[in-house]
Amino acid sequence: MMRQLVIVVMIVIANKNLKRRENYRKPVIAGNWKMFKTRDEALFFILQVSEAMPSSKDVETIVFAQAPLMRCLIKRQGLNLKIGAQNLFYEDEGAFTGEISGPLLKSYKVEYVLIGHSERRAYFYETDEIVNKKIQAALRNTLRPIVCVGERLEERENNLTEKVLERQIKGAFEGVKAIDMKNIIIAYEPVWAIGTGKTATAEMADDACGFIRNEIEKLYGKLIAEEIRIQYGGSVKPENIEELLSKENIDGALIGGASLDPDKFIAMANAAVK
């Protein structure tokens, strides 16, 4: 009887471990430098960090830098760190002064592009429709978008978080094919927690990421919803990243100010391996 009980327990544990492996989503740690760092500062960072990143088999690490910095950083990114673009335009060429095209990014061997960041929405009036067009442009040029969604403080205080996220998700992925979702990462970044020092609790962040996953399931089915990676962004730092990453629906972090410091970025990348 005891032997049978042990066998049953072993089978249950094995099934749980198998389920964990099946649902495994490799963490993504991304730093968004915004409009910070000169060329010399960027070179100092990359020389400190590129060889210190954990294996890309365990975690994807990305730095989103200003466009003029990308070439010098890409040459020194190493095997386990990728340099991404902070923006792209939704047309591949044309009379669009100051914009960056998908083909140009591809020619630099850029793999990732940030789309729909709250600062782009707020300061440059990017709508859900524009975000959608930029996603289509990224996919057309075989770039991998990290698509940002999130609510403002007044929207959260008025219990509109889920309504805002639903609208943004539907708008962003209008016409995007299911097969393309494997190349997309979503970042939940509540606007009220970006650059303010305020951070959503791990539970709040996990609830929002879980809601986003449910919305993806409605659009694309359970398998894609389980596979898509969803980051949290909003005053992430070494002191809170482990708790955030311990949550079921949080698969990484989109990091602002703390990603400017080489030691902090290394620490947060390593935290994702644990």
Describe it.
This protein is an alpha/beta fold. The protein has a single domain, classed as TIM Barrel. Helices cover 43% and strands 14% of the residues. It has an eight-stranded parallel sheet with strand order 3-2-1-8-7-6-5-4. α3 links the parallel β2 and β3. α2 packs parallel to α12 and α8 (161-172) packs across α9 (202-220). It starts with a helix and ends with a helix.
Secondary structure topology:
Blueprint: H1 2-22, E1 28-32, H2 39-49, E2 60-65, H3 70-74, E3 82-85, H4 102-107, E4 112-115, H5 118-123, H6 128-140, E5 144-149, H7 153-157, H8 161-172, E6 185-188, H9 202-220, H10 222-227, E7 229-233, H11 241-245, E8 252-255, H12 262-271
Parallel strand pairs: 1-2, 1-8, 2-3, 4-5, 5-6, 6-7, 7-8
Task: Briefly characterize the structure.
Helix content is 43%, strand content 14%. The chain has 274 residues and is of the alpha/beta class.
Weakly predicted, low-confidence segments: 5-22
- The CATH topology corresponds to TIM Barrel
Oligomeric nature of the chains: single chain
Query: SS-based structural class?
Result: alpha/beta
Q: How many discrete structural domains?
A: 1
Alpha carbon gyration radius: 19 Å
Broad shape: globular
Number of strands: 8
Taking all residues together, what is the mean pLDDT?
Answer: 92
> In CATH's first tier, which class applies?
Alpha Beta
Q: How would you sum up the major sheet?
A: 8 strands, parallel
State the CATH superfamily name.
Answer: Aldolase class I
Report the sheet-strand fraction. Answer: 5-15%
Tell me the CATH architecture: Alpha-Beta Barrel
The termini sit apart by 38 Å
